[in-house]
Task: structure prediction
Amino acid sequence: MRRMTLAAGAAAMLMTIAAAGLAQQQAGQAFFVGNRLGLPINPGDGAFQAMSSNVKVYGAIYSAESCSYDADRGVIVVPNRGVAQNVQTNNGWVSFINHDGSVHTARWIGIQTPDQRTALKPPLVLNEPLGSDIAGGMLYVADRDGGTAPSDPAVSVVRRFNMKTGAPAGETRVERSTGFNDIEVADDGTIYATQTGTGGQTPDPMSWQVWKITPDGNASMFVQGAPLRQPNGIAFDPQGNIVVINIGTADVLTFSPAGQLLKTETAVQPGNDGLVIMKDGTKYVSSVQNGGVSRIRPGRPAELIAQNIPNPASMCYDAGANQLVIPMNANNGLAFIPLR
Result:
């Protein structure tokens, strides 16, 4: 009789534990980010101890397309695309990289598995981030939903994350766009985004687009068609104009805030992806197809300052070290170009 009572009590205890676990899973877990290099990796696994200072780690980059500089932390913020959408959704993450290219935090946002992310409060979605920018204490990334199969059309989504906590802070879906490439964000939260569209022998010029998204989420077409030719990188110049570069041409196009074409400059190479504009108006343009970086000083022709870089994509300016940082797409690395 006593054995049966103990067995019943044990069974009841197991049921209670299982119910508590299920309730916790249903309730969700508070959002958290990953620790910088050290142990434990997961902050919920105990007191953190930093990695010893005589160790440097390089890597943590996988199919990265863009980067931004976090002046508060003094690190380069790199969204990693992870695997393709048709392989695994919600697989992207964000790394922190030091000025010398070593890893600060391998996975800041996105330490959880895709399944774990859906149970977080708030839930985390980061599918395949391309362009990125930091403005107003927020990290903005050009992401997308869908695109997992021909029957699942892709939809552009700009996702926001709090730069202090890493927590998701909202998103803007643009159903009429099939995929933003690069973004630039004004201090007031206005977003300008490029949709590269189609190339090849029979391109659709109407697919070449630049969008404007107001802080309240209203999305409208800013520029469409020529002189765009598969637009990619986008940035503001010192006057507040919007500068766009093309993959399909070497053109560097400057538009007014009203969308009027003000100026066309020419990079040394076509096939361009990344764009950085300095305070003095100097432009740096990276060619993902031809491997070079052009410098265009105001009123002067373009000159090549670096060449034969494998697939230099979008790039950012690391103000803490006065250098350009360029993700290298499928090469899973970052290129660093000191500026003199």
In short: Residues 147 and 154 are 4 Å apart (CA to CA).
